[in-house]
Amino acid sequence: MKQQIVTPKRSLTKETEALLNKQIEMEGKSSAAYLSMASWCETKGYDTSSQFLYKHSEEERMHMLKLFHYINAAGGHAIQPEISGIKHSFKSLREVFNDVLTHELEVTKSINHIVDHCFSIKDFATFNFLQWYVMEQREEETLARRAVELFDIIGEEGVGLWMIDQEIGKLEMYAAKSSGTTT
Ligand code: OFO
């Protein structure tokens, strides 16, 4: 009898696929939220913060797309999420970066949850794929935390806010250094 060649159609469990799709939604939300923050900053004259956030919005879209390709390549179906509930105005620049930090902490929690799930079901390929996100979150959290700290270190009086806006532009370099991606 001719031997059957078994070609499994998928290497993801339905549960893992659902978790990764939820993560797509989170990354899409990050991208939309940062775009909205960038626009608000631009209207208020916080030009450096605005550029920083526009760039970050793009990066979040890239995080989302990586997940799209991974899910589809593994035989699942990546779903374009509905994005709603995006905040359009802020009381202050400090509030913008407080929101970024709060959001990034949530994203880290979510990534860790999926990593834990993948380990428990021995999906080592997805576990491995997610290590990039684990390290990326370390960098993103550091960046957001540093941004929030600037408000206390410099103070918002007088030219303080102008200086904070300038310093935001240098944060990328700081975060890359502290996560070891540059020397
Ligand atoms: Fe995708 O790292 Fe922020 O949210």
Could you characterize the architecture of this molecule?
By secondary structure, the protein is an all-alpha fold. The longest helix has 31 residues, at 14-44. It is built from 6 helices and no strands. The structure holds hydroxy diiron-OXO moiety.
CATH topology: Ferritin
Task: Work out the helix count.
Answer: 6
CATH class: Mainly Alpha
> Termini distance?
62 Å
Q: Give the strand content.
A: under 5%
Low-confidence parts lasting 5 or more residues at pLDDT below 50?
none
Which ions and ligands are bound to the chains?
hydroxy diiron-OXO moiety
CATH H-level superfamily: Ferritin, core subunit, four-helix bundle
What is the CATH architecture annotation? Answer: Up-down Bundle
Brief overview:
Helix content is 73%, strand content 0%.
List the helices and strands and how they pair.
Layout: H1 14-44, H2 47-73, H3 93-120, H4 124-154, H5 160-168, H6 171-178
The protein binds hydroxy diiron-OXO moiety.
Sum up the structure in keywords.
binds hydroxy diiron-OXO moiety; elongated; 73% helix; 6 helices; 183 residues; Ferritin; single chain; mainly alpha
